[in-house]
Structure formats: structure tokens, C-alpha cells
Amino acid sequence: MYSSLEKILRRAEEQNVPFWKAVQLHDCRESDITEEQSFERMRSMYRAMLESDRNYDPALKSASGLVGGEAEKLHRAREEGKLIVGNLIASVMEKSLRVAESNACMRRIVAAPTAGSCGVVPAVLISVQDELQIPEDKMVEALYVAAGIGGVIARRASLSGAAGGCQAEIGSASAMAAGALAYLLGADAQTVTDAAALALKSLLGLACDPVAGLVEIPCVKRNVIGAVNAVTSAEMAVSGIRSKIPADQVIDAMGSIGKRMPEEIRETAKGGLAVTPEAQAIAAKIRM
């Protein structure tokens, strides 16, 4: 696992390979596998993401009854032309809900980087593949980009809501998706890291305050915010907008903020939305 995005950039330049390839070669060395084995393993993850979207069942409800069927509501609104956003963003919104709801309903998902943020990366990648008709191999390459970014965040900061708040989960997923999308849009390696930085900066300080301690409210809806944020961040970076703060420093800032967050807003359900009157009523009903 690389310790910085700057190291990935340097390795890519030294070896004259794209960002994704530098990540893959490092994975091969760490896992002692061939490039072909690594690529097929990553392909299986992308296909599992596809399945988590396609196998969504709008009739399912989570055990608490708090989550389920909402992606279908968005789908109907989209079909009826009630949404004012364009087709790509509408798809990203719907798919992020589909996958995040599936997690709450105990369906198979890919934790990218966590179960609570599982809807962000697939929503962005699958929607863009559908929109631009991108070959699967290119999508697998993009997943390496996302993995490289996520690996650095894990090493320099955290991917855990309990350790760093939801910025560490949804924020990290958004950065991963933004970098991957920038790659798919033809960005160079530096622009990929700018996209990741722009996405993460926008979600710094996001609390982790699950109602009743469940990864449902507000977690599922936050996947939508993370996914849409990833798209806008990638679009800004590809348009030439740079992150004034280097990506590694943004990651370090996220880690620092997470350490300073009160325990109440780090997945304990003791603060934030989790202690609102309605949330307390929901928790009491579930306990009964």
C-alpha cells in the first residue's frame, strides 16, 4: 500500500505507466501475484458491484424497517420526468441508493471502502459506463485508481467512521470515485489526484451519527451526496481546476479533524442526528 499519492505519481512517472498501472504493479508485489491475476481479481470486484446494482429488490426492507424501496421512488420520478437534473446525475443518485439500500437489507455489496459507503463508487462508475459505453477493461483500470486513492487514505488517515467520522467513509469513497471518474474522462495522473482532493475537501468534518446505531439513517442518503460530489469534483478537475491544497495534505487534514472529533459524532449514536427527538423515538420503537 502506497503511503502517499505523491509516491504513486512519482512511480508512474519513473516507470512511464498510467496511475492505475502503478497501483496494480504495487498490488502484484504485495500480493505476490501476476498482473493477469491481479486484473482478474479486480474485474471480479467490478462485476460484484454491477450485481449489487442489478440485483436491487425494491420490495425488501431492512430488519429495522427504516430502509428499503426509496431507490425505486427515485426511479419512478426519473421515469416520469420529474427530476430536473440530467440523466447522468439522476442515474448516479438512483444507483447510490440502490446499492446502499441493498447493504442495509443484507444483500451482497462491495465495501468500497466500507459497507456504509458502498453505494458511492459503483453508482459513479456504472452510471458513467452506461452513459459513455466504456469497455469493461477500462472500468477495471478505473477501479485500480479508486483503490490506490483509498489505500493512501487508509494509511495516512482512516476509512472508519468510528475513528474519523463519516468524512472517513463517505468522504473517502467520494474521493476514490472522483479520481476514478477523472481517469475515465481522460485525465492525467496529477488531475486524478486533484479530483480526489476536491471531493474530500468538500466533505471534511462530516459527522458519523447513525440513528439507533444502525448504518441506515442518515447513512444511505449520504451515499447520494458522496456520489454526486464525486462527479462534480471530477468535472472541475478535468476542466483544469486544481486543488490549491495537495491531495496528501487534504488527507492528512481529514485525519487530523477525525482525531479531534468528539466521541459523540464518531459512530457512537450519542450525538448529532442520533440524539434528535425523532431519532430517539425511532430507537425506542426498535428496542421495543
Task: Write a structural description.
The protein is built from 13 helices and no strands. It has a single domain (5-203, 215-261), classed as 2-methylcitrate dehydratase PrpD (Orthogonal Bundle). It is mainly alpha-helical and 288 residues long. It is globular, with a radius of gyration of 18 Å. The mean pLDDT is 98. It has helices at 5-15, 19-31, 35-54, 70-79, 87-104, 120-132, 136-156, 161-164, 170-184, 189-201, 219-238, 247-260, 277-287. It is 64% helix and 0% strand.
Quick recap of the structure?
This protein is mainly alpha-helical. It has helices at residues 5-15, 19-31, 35-54, 70-79, 87-104, 120-132, 136-156, 161-164, 170-184, 189-201, 219-238, 247-260, 277-287.
The SSE order reads HHHHHHHHHHHHH
> In this structure, how is the largest beta sheet organized?
none
Helix % is 55-70%
Using the CA coordinates, give the radius of gyration. Answer: 18 Å
The count of domains is 1
Task: Give the topology, please.
Elements: H1 5-15, H2 19-31, H3 35-54, H4 70-79, H5 87-104, H6 120-132, H7 136-156, H8 161-164, H9 170-184, H10 189-201, H11 219-238, H12 247-260, H13 277-287
Helix pairs in contact: 1-2, 2-3, 2-7, 3-7, 4-5, 5-6, 5-11, 6-9, 6-11, 7-9, 9-10, 9-11, 10-11, 10-12
Question: Which short descriptors sum up this protein?
Answer:
single chain, about 290 residues, mainly alpha, 2-methylcitrate dehydratase PrpD, 13 helices, about 0% strand, globular
